[in-house]
Amino acid sequence: MSSRPETPRPATPLLDRVTTPADLKRLSDDELVRLAHELRAETISAVSETGGHLGAGLGVVELTVALHAVFDTPRDKLIWDVSHQCYPHKILTGRRDRIRTLRMKDGLSGFAKRSESPYDPFGAGHSSTSISAALGFAMARELGGSCETGLGDAIAVIGDGSMSAGMAFEAMNNAGHLGKRLIVILNDNEMSIAPPTGALSSYLNRLYAEAPFHDLKAAAKGAVNLLPPPFREGAKRAKDVLKSMTVGGTLFEELGFSYVGPIDGHDLHQLLPVLRTVKARATGPILIHALTKKGKGYAPAEHSADRGHARGKFDVVTGEQKKSPSNAPAYTKVFAQTLTRLAAVDPRICAVTAAMPDGTGLDLMAERFPDRVFDVGIAEQHGVTFSAGLAAGGMKPFCAMYSTFLQRGYDQVVHDVAIQRLPVRFAIDRAGLVGADGATHAGAYDVAFMANLPGMVVMAAADEAELVNMVATAAAHDEGPIAFRYPRGEGVGVEMPETPQILPIGKGRMIRTGSRVAILSFGTRLSEVLKACEKLEARGVSPTVADARFAKPLDRDLILQLAQDHEALITIEEGAVGGFGSHVAQLLSDEGIFDHGLKFRSMVLPDTFIDHSSPADMYATAGLNAEQIEEKVLTTLGVDVLNKRA
Ligand SMILES: Cc1ncc(C[n+]2csc(CCOP(=O)(O)OP(=O)(O)O)c2C)c(N)n1
Ligand SMILES: CC(=O)[C@@H](O)[C@H](O)COP(=O)(O)O
Ligand SMILES: [Mg+2]
Q1: Phi, psi of 598, rounded to the nearest 5 degrees
Q2: How are strands ordered across the β-sheet holding 182-188?
Q3: Cβ(545)–Cβ(519) under 8 Å?
Q4: pLDDT in tens, 103-146
Q5: Does 54-86+109-297 match 331-485 in CATH topology?
Q6: Atom 4, ligand 1: residue with shortest CA distance
Q7: How far is the C-alpha of 109 from the C-alpha of 304, rounded, in Å?
Q8: What residues contact 236, with CB distance under 8 A and at least 6 apart?
Q9: Is 488 near ligand 2, meaning CB less than 6 Å away?
Q10: In angstroms, how far is CA 105 from the centroid of its own chain?
């Protein structure tokens, strides 16, 4: 399944002796230090062969070793926030033999996944959920709950970027109030995917500046009485532990946590005694502030602007990625370039991203208009309402989010944007299946949840030229909220419009005229539909094809005409049931069209979470590729599929 390595795999004599975390308990602290080196080398080697999230995992190698050496997983619940940093954890928890299948079909997930291992007590992919989940485990333990692996300590490891989200604070607020034993490790590498923005990041910097860990020995002198009560006794006895700790962090303390740190998250001789003391003595919620470096120990990652956040397959020696040549511009880039072009002539255009300036392409616009691009941090809920406020204040905000992350801000879309009919422009990137990130990142639901809302305009680009037109259409639409969706990856290579065209709201377009069956496509499945038509023509079936462009408002005239002129109507979209096809079905039902015998089929994503694989394979699993469209047409028309006879 994995490709052949070009660089010899690293020698890992100690790691070879580790099958489960229990094996770490037999190693001395010095051996654990050596093990960490081997684990780092193994992680780099594996990701060089598979691609995936690299920098975050390299930054938590020592933390991973220390946590598994000190705590008793899987009885103690180790919950990784986002869990993009969990590859070293997977290697130590019985999955080393499959680590080179990461993110591939039938291989290991790139994230923590309950169904994959008892050492993954809580799955993730989205950020800032770990403290809530850990608190749930902690309270279940207090209430006498049970699970197969038992219930011990609950430990959340959360990054500085993820800590800025409201959910993390909601959890700390609750944890401080409940006062039960709960361990939170704040893994502070001063990075999100991009450099973190916001006041919390500055606050964490100040904490570090006030008590940098290299001054801890001095700071610790006489600090016993400042330590939170559970630590005082232990610290008096264990001077070495005391030397690696200081106290501060008023924000966390005000929320009811004991605060320990900052400590050097790469120094096992600090991490191990601190964790052992916490394990032995903590009574209530405690936050350990560990300072780490994203990409640690791998120069090409450490020196890159994103500290090696995610990589395709790469050459271990040079860090160079193996990229396939591109045939067409990426949708994200087309969006960003068009928006930047429009922003140059319209000073009211501004844009909001929730910690994804690079992923949404808004870093391009920020280069030219830094004052009109806002990175609000991982805070989708705030990002949506902030956009609503900007719109109410007369600006033209483009709220650019991945479909999957916009889910977080849904109440804000309803309550703050739609009900108030505020003209927020939602640029919904990564719409549809995204491949290796799998189910947590699939953009499956946005059409359903956006098109349900009164007054919301919902568009999907069929290709990159259409996306240009939709960005312009959104910019021109001041009457209320409007959304346009586009997928991850490259366009189809169509000619780009010289001047963006403003599309008439609620009007689709005819692509080709045929007979008997009409296929009404919403979004980028159009290219697969056209491929299917070529094959169908060879079989004597000539479908009509239209691009709906809008799921809301629907092009009633077009749909009713197609229904009237054809024996069968098939809709297709890259979204879950409840989206475009459902709205078309509702219209046809309202108009009594079914009474006249129209054969109607709606091709949507299946009612299941599709595991990580290549996008092409995922679409095949979903039944949405050209061959499957061809088959759907034939079966709908009653053609014998095997013999392909009408
Ligand atoms: C709700 C949500 N929004 C955005 C993302 C995209 N994302 C994944 S990792 C990441 C950065 C996280 O930063 P941090 O928690 O500091 O972890 P680090 O990568 O620095 O270890 C972001 C923005 C996400 N996974 N979930
Ligand atoms: C872990 C996470 O949420 C992001 O890193 C995500 O994997 C980015 O996806 P893209 O590669 O599509 O930007
Ligand atoms: Mg970080």
Answers
A1: -60, 135
A2: 77-80, 154-159, 182-188, 285-291, 258-264
A3: yes
A4: 999 999 999 999 999 999 999 999 999 999 999 999 999 999 99
A5: yes
A6: 378
A7: 25
A8: 224, 242
A9: yes
A10: 19
Instruction: Please answer whether residues 159 and 108 qualify as being in contact, where contact means their C-beta atoms are separated by less than 8 angstroms.
Output: no
Lowest mean pLDDT, pick from 217-226, 310-319, 459-468, 531-540 = 217-226
Question: What's the 434 CA to ligand 2 centre distance in angstroms?
Answer: 9
Looking from the CA of residue 189, the nearest atom of ligand 1 is 20
Q: Exposed, middle or buried: residue 22 (CB in 10 Å: 0-12, 13-18, 19+)?
A: exposed
d(CA 282, CA 286): 7
**509-636 CATH, one of 3.40.50.150, 3.40.50.1970, 3.40.605.10, 3.40.50.920:** 3.40.50.920
Q: Is 296 in the pocket of ligand 1 (CB under 6 A)?
A: no
User: 230-279, pLDDT tens digit by residue?
Assistant: 454 444 433 444 434 444 447 899 899 999 988 999 999 999 999 999 99
Catalytic residues: 294, 380, 408
Is the CB–ligand 2 distance for residue 110 below 6 Å?
no
Helix (H) or strand (E) holding 473: helix 464-476
Kindly state the tokens that stand for 222: 């006489």
pTM given for the model:
0.94
> Shortest CA distance to 449 belongs to which of 571, 332, 551, 555?
551
- The domain spans of the chain are 54-86+109-297, 331-485, 509-636
Distance (angstroms) between ligand 2 centre and the Cα of 269 equals: 33
pLDDT for residue 239:
41
N-to-C CA span, the chain: 41
The phi and psi torsions of 349 (rounded to 5 degrees) equal -75, 130
Write b or e for each residue in 486-506: b if 16 or more Cβ atoms lie within 10 A of its Cβ, otherwise e. Answer: bbbbbbeeeebeeebeebebb
CA dist list (Å): 489 to 69, 239, 493: 41, 55, 12
pLDDT in tens, 341-386: 999 999 999 999 999 999 999 999 999 999 999 999 999 999 999 9
Let me know how many helices (H) and strands (E) the chain has, helices first: 26, 19
Distance of alpha carbon 473 from the chain centroid: 28
Decide which of 3.30.70.20, 3.40.190.100, 3.40.50.970, 3.40.630.30 is the CATH code for 54-86+109-297: 3.40.50.970
6, 315 Cβ separation under 8 angstroms:
yes
CB 421 within 8 A of CB 482: no
What is the CATH code of the structural domain delimited by 331-485?
3.40.50.970
